[in-house]
Amino acid sequence: MSKSQKAEGPKRPKLAVFKFASCDGCQLSLLDCEDELLDVTGAVELAYFPEATRATLAGPYDLTLVEGSITTPHDAERIHAIRRQSKYLVTIGACATAGGIQSLRNYANVNSFIDIVYAHPEYIDTLRTSTPISDHVPVDFELNGCPINKYQLLELISALLNGRKPNIVPHSVCMECKRRGTVCVMVSHGVACLGPVTHAGCNALCPSYSRGCFGCYGPKETPNTNSISARFEALGLPPEETVRLFRSFNAGATEFHNASLAAEHSKPK
Amino acid sequence: MSKSITLSGVLPAAGFQRLLDAVRDAGFRTIGPRARNGAIVLDELSDVAELPVGWNDEQVAGSYRAAKGSGDRLFDYVVGPTSWKRFLYPPRRELWHAQKEGQAWVPEAPADDFEPTAFLGVRNCDIAAIRTLDRVLLDSGYREPVYDSRRSKIFIIAVSCAAPVSTCFCTSMGGGPTPTDGFDLSLVELGSGNDHRFIISSGSERGAEIVSALNLDEVVERDLDAAATQDRTSVEKINQVPAMANARSTIAATMRSDHWDEVADRCLSCANCTLVCPTCFCVDIEDTTDLSGTSVSRHQQWDSCFTMSHSYLHGGSIRKTTAARYRQWLSHKLGTWHDQFGSSGCVGCGRCVTWCPAAIDIRVELEALEESLKEMTTEEA
Hints:
The structure holds two protein chains of two kinds. Chain A is an alpha/beta fold. Chain A is built from twelve helices and five strands. A five-stranded parallel β-sheet of chain A has the order 2-1-3-4-5, with helices on both faces. Chain A is globular. In chain A, 49% of the residues are buried. By secondary structure, chain B is an alpha+beta fold. Chain B folds into two domains: 6-237, no CATH class; 242-380, no CATH class. Chain B has twelve helices and 15 strands. Chain B has helices at 16-25, 85-88, 124-137, 145-151, 205-212, 221-237, 247-253, 259-266, 272-276, 322-341, 351-354, 362-380, and strands at 6-12, 29-36, 39-45, 55-60, 63-68, 92-101, 104-108, 117-122, 154-159, 185-190, 197-202, 283-289, 295-302, 312-313, 316-317. A seven-stranded mixed β-sheet of chain B has the order 1-11-10-9-8-2-3, sandwiched between helices. In chain B, strands 7-6-13-12 form a four-stranded antiparallel β-sheet, with no helix packed on it. A two-stranded antiparallel ribbon of chain B has the order 4-5. The longest helix of chain B is centred in the C-terminal third of the chain and has 20 residues, at 322-341. The interface between A and B is large, with 49 and 51 residues.
C-alpha cells in the first residue's frame, strides 16, 4: 500500500528536519522507526533531512521538525528563515521545547566556560543563554522528551496527515505508571520522583525500573512544584538535590526553572 | 442477600494448595496477592508459595511499606495499589478498529479474551467496590459490555482482614473486616504454625460445590470464638471517621469554602487517587489513524477528573484550577454519587490516602470541611 503511494510522489507532503543546538537524538528517533520507516517515507517526502539523505528540496515545507535550542546569534536568525518556509513547525525534544541541558548556561556566565573549553575563545560567537524555539518564533506543536518518544512522533505525523488532533496529552507520568501497573516508587520506597509534575509520554519508563522520574518530558499541565518540593524535603532530600532534579534536561522550562530557584533559596545557610 | 451463607468447614493451612487446585479444576485461573517491588499487588498465581507468605504492610498517608516477616500467615496485610477494577474494567482496551477496503470502511470489534477467573483474597471493602461498580456500569441504564461479560466470569474468594492499617476506614462506610455477602467463598485465616487454619464459608452453589471436594474438618466452637475475637480486634484497629456520616451534606454546604484552595496548595493533580480508587470509573476515548489513513481504531482508557482534558468543552477546560478539580472528585465521590447511583462512591479502602504522593488524606480534608462549615455557620449567625 505504502509503496504504491510513494510512486504517486508529488502528492506527498514535504517534511523537513532542522537542527539547532542538540545531540541529534530526537531526529534520529525518526530513523529509529524501523518497522514504520517505509510507511513514513511513503506518506511524506523527505525534503530536507541531512541525517537521512543528501538530496534536499527547497521549501516551503508542509511539516518542519525542529530539534535543538537557540544558542548563537546565527541560529537566532536562521530559525526565522525556517519559520517562513514552514506551514507547520513542530519542535521535537527538550532542547527545542525548553532549551535543553545546555540551558544550564543560563544559570552561569557562559564566558567562564568558553575560556576553559576553547584554546581560542575569540573565535566563539555564542549567546549568553540557551532558549527554546518558542521564544523566537510561533510554534504549532511541541513534542516533549529527552529524547522524544518515536511513537509520539509517528502519532503526530499521522494526525497532521489525517487532519486530526494528535493524542499527545499533558497529564502526569503517574497516570502512565498506574495504567501499566507500576508500583509508585515514591510512596512505596521513598524515592524522590518528578512523575507527579512531569508531562507524560515516556510510558513511565524510569519508575518501571524502580527509579524516580527525572523529568525528561518537562512540566505537565498545571504542575504543583511547590508541593512536590515540600514532599521531597519531607522524604529527607537535601534542597540541593531538589535543585539538581529540576535543573536537568528541562532546566529552562519555566515551571522547573522557578522550582529550582525556589529550592536554591530554601537552602540552609 | 438472597444467597445464603453456609459455614462449610475448616481447611488446615497445610492443605491450602488443595483449594487452589480445586478452583483450577473448576475451570478458573486465579488472580491474587503477590509480592512485587516491595508491594503486594494482584496478579496471576497457581501455587500457594506464590502468595506473600509471612508478609505484612504498614500504610499511612503518602507511604506504603511491605516486607516479609517471620510469620507464616498468608493474608496478614490489607489492600495494595492494585484493585480488582484493573481486571474487570481494564486500564486500556480497543473498542473497535476499521480498515478501508476500496471505498468502504470495514469495522471490526475485537473479542474480549478474558478467561473465567477466581479473585483470591478479596477484602470486604473490595467486595463493596465491585458492588459499587455494578451499580455504575450495569444497573444505571447502560450495561458496559466488557465489564458485564467479565463480571459474569469471576469467582470471588474473599478473606477477612486480620491486620488493618491506619488508612483503613471501611467501618465508617458501612463495611467491616469480615465479608458478609457478595462472594462465592469466604476465608477466615486463624492461628499459625501447627494451628494455622482457615474457616471456609460458601456464598454460592458453585462455591459450595468446589469446597465439597476438599474434605474440610468440621467447624468447632473454638474456631468460631477465634474468628469472633479476630474480627473484634480488627474492628477496634480500624479508624472511625464520624465526619463520613454527614459527608454528603457537609460537601454540599461547603462548595465555596476556602478549604478547597488550601487543599489545592498541596494537591499535585497527578490523578493517583482516582486511578488507585477501586470505584473511579472515568475513561477517555482515543481515536487514532495510521499514517496512510486506511486503518483507524478507537481505544478506551482510564482517565481522571484531575486532568484538564477531562473537563474540556469547546473553548477550554471548565475546571482549570486544582481546587475545582479536587472539589469535583471529592464532591462526586462522597456526595453526588448518592444522587446518581444511590450510594457513596467510597468504600473506605484507604488506597487514595496511602498512594497520594502528597500525603493528602480524604478523611482529614472532610473533617476540615466540616470545621469550615461550622465557621461559615457561625459567621452567618
